[in-house]
Write a structure and sequence with these properties.
single chain; 2 domains; Aspartate Aminotransferase, domain 1; about 375 residues; alpha/beta; three-stranded antiparallel β-sheet; globular; about 40% helix; Aspartate Aminotransferase, domain 2
């Protein structure tokens, strides 16, 4: 179906096309100098010591769990309202996934109170998801982590360069707050390379583990040997092939240069939605109480009070693409667990509307008109 207003569209221009062509002309396509440049630029912008490019965010999450020593017998708490990869990456290690609830319709991020309620003697870490591009309640979450000596993994798939302002007035980017941050560059993300991801950390020892595990546990890389910096290698860990290639890294560098502009446009679109739907008796707009200057507005979720299927059908007939982020992971057959109560209630009525830097104010007004019927 040809959508009048698609859910989202990537901002890909001539710079990305030239960057890919330059890599092809270089004849070195696998992880090398361009990837190293992308990592350096990402770490510098994030103000973190280490940024390690990987093949996707699922790989990033898996490596994060592995680097923190999470294994069979451990428990990791994560939100039920997330993409399945957040939970699967925990399960890859043999650890148990413990699903926590969200706060409310207006604050659909992981609940600090429910995190604390779910902690047992086996809990090793908390995986938070900065849902829709809005930081979780990190003051409370980091206090809980310190109190119970837990590690914190930040799933930043929705939130590249979102910020959290702490009670003391200091600010940090999401992905630089906990022990490890994990980013996605999938085709619909704020920064896209088609597929791809990044792991960030300020911990040198964790970075070294991740660097080793992402490339077969090898002590030197193919590019280092190609350049004559090494001639041999050893394999000292059971690693994986989670590397990012030069083509995607080249696209990533271009995207990184314009991410502030793209994120600002996303904030503008979110404000338009808030203004159009502020007095709606049909939907609740999450995060309307938040300072949008801190957010990066990846998704446009709304909570439909009633008649969700009718609303979705009306939008579809008008050529407006929608989705739902997300069905609770606990409801999938592979998990089959009880869904936390607020997540169960909210997820049934969630509807994701189009959001992206190409959306116009007229588009948002048209979508709002369809919602109001």
């Amino acid at each position: 179906m040809e959508w009048k207003i698609p859910l989202t569209e990537p901002d890909i221009g001539e710079a990305e096309i030239r960057a890919v062509t330059d890599v092809l002309h270089s004849k070195w396509l696998t992880m090398g100098a361009v990837t190293a440049e992308f990592e350096k630029a990402f770490a510098s912008k994030m103000n973190v010591r280490h940024a390690l490019a990987v093949s996707n965010c699922t790989a990033a999450l898996h490596l994060a769990n592995l680097a923190l020593g999470i294994t069979a017998g451990d428990e990791v708490i994560c939100p039920d309202l997330t993409f399945v990869a957040t939970a699967n990456a925990i399960r890859y290690t043999g650890a148990k996934v413990v699903f926590a609830d969200i706060v409310s319709e207006r604050e659909p991020t992981i609940s600090p109170a429910d995190i604390e309620a779910k902690i047992t003697a086996r809990t090793k870490a908390i995986a938070v998801v900065h849902y829709a591009g809005f930081a979780c309640l990190m003051d409370e979450i980091m206090e809980i982590a310190r109190q119970f000596n837990l590690r914190v993994i930040e799933d930043c798939a929705h939130a590249p360069f979102a910020r959290h302002r702490f009670r003391d007035g200091t600010e940090k980017y999401t992905g630089a707050i906990g022990d490890i941050g994990c980013f996605s560059f999938f085709g619909n993300k704020n920064i896209t390379t088609g597929e791809g991801g990044m792991v960030t950390t300020n911990d040198d020892s964790l970075a070294e583990k991740i660097r080793l595990l992402r490339s077969h546990g090898m002590t030197t890389l193919t590019y280092e040997r190609h350049k004559g910096h090494a001639s041999e290698y050893d394999v000292i860990a059971l690693g994986y092939n989670y590397r990012l290639d030069e083509i995607r890294s080249a696209i990533g560098l271009c995207q990184l240069e314009k991410i502030d502009r793209l994120n600002e446009k996303r904030r503008e679109v979110y404000r338009w939605y808030i203004n159009e739907l502020a007095d709606s008796d049909k939907v609740i707009v999450p995060f309307s109480h938040r300072d949008l200057r801190q957010a990066v507005c990846h998704l446009m979720p709304v909570f439909v009070k009633e008649g969700g299927e009718e609303t979705k059908l009306r939008l579809r007939r008008a050529g407006v693409q929608t989705s739902r982020h997300y069905s609770p992971v606990s409801t999938f057959n592979i998990y089959g667990e009880a869904t936390p109560p607020v997540t169960a209630r909210v997820s049934e009525h969630l509807l994701t509307l189009p959001l992206g830097p190409t959306l116009s104010r007229e588009d948002v007004k048209f979508i709002a008109q369809q919602i109001e019927g």
